[in-house]
Amino acid sequence: MRLTSKRKKAPKWFIEENKKAKEYFEEVAKMLNVSVEWLDSATGKQKMEVVKNLGLTKKDQQEIEWLIVASSGLKEYSWAKFRLENKDNDFGVDAEHLKYDKKKEEIVLSSPFSSIQRQIEKVFGGRVEAHFHDAQPKQ
Predict the structure, then answer these.
(1) Which domain of life, per UniProt (predicted)?
(2) pLDDT band at 28 (very low <50, low <70, confident <90, very high)
(3) Of the four, 74, 82, 93, 121, which is 20 to 30 A from 139 by CA?
(4) SS (H, E, C) the chain
(5) Is the entire prediction scored with pTM above 0.85?
(6) What is the C-alpha separation between 50 and 30, in angstroms, rounded?
């Protein structure tokens, strides 16, 4: 596949769903008294352990657990929907090699492609256009 672009404005629905997920994460982080970064990187088991240790009522625990699941599920759903809609995307790569830049609200090429290109540019001391092609079996 040929790399034709590195950035693309994210669809409006994708931006909105990511903002909702971020709001859920911020709300949960406040409730758990942890950072959003920790919450984003922690495993489900770690999150539930923190919830248990807060000494909350069963109802409050369930509400927090629901918000955790909702925020994670919304992000996963957004990416699944985006991948499905963008099988043949402008990037020229499979959608799983893309990530979301929240600040610029853009879908960008992610590792390993971008990191490989940065390494090549570092070695050669300048801008390098990267092109990737599918390996086609010889017939």
Answers:
(1) Bacteria
(2) confident
(3) 93
(4) CCCCCCEEECCHHHHHHHHHHHHHHHHHHHHHCCCHHHHHHCCHHHHHHHHHHCCCCHHHHHHHHHHHHHHHHHHHHHHHHHHHHCCCCCCCCCHHHEEEECCCCEEEECCCHHHHHHHHHHHHCCCCCCCCCCCCCCC
(5) no
(6) 12
Q: What is the pLDDT of residues 65-117, one digit of tens each?
A: 888 888 778 777 887 777 777 665 555 555 556 666 777 777 766 655 455 55
Domain span holding position 120: 7-124
Please indicate, yes or no, if residue 23 is contained in any of the structural domains.
yes
Q: Look at residue 132 and tell me if it is in a domain.
A: no
Two structure tokens written together for 43: 């495993």
Domain count, the chain: 1
Report yes or no on 39 lying in a domain. Answer: yes
Beta bridge partner(s), residue 107: 8, 100
Amino acid at 99: K
* Integer Cα distance of 3 and 105 in angstroms: 20
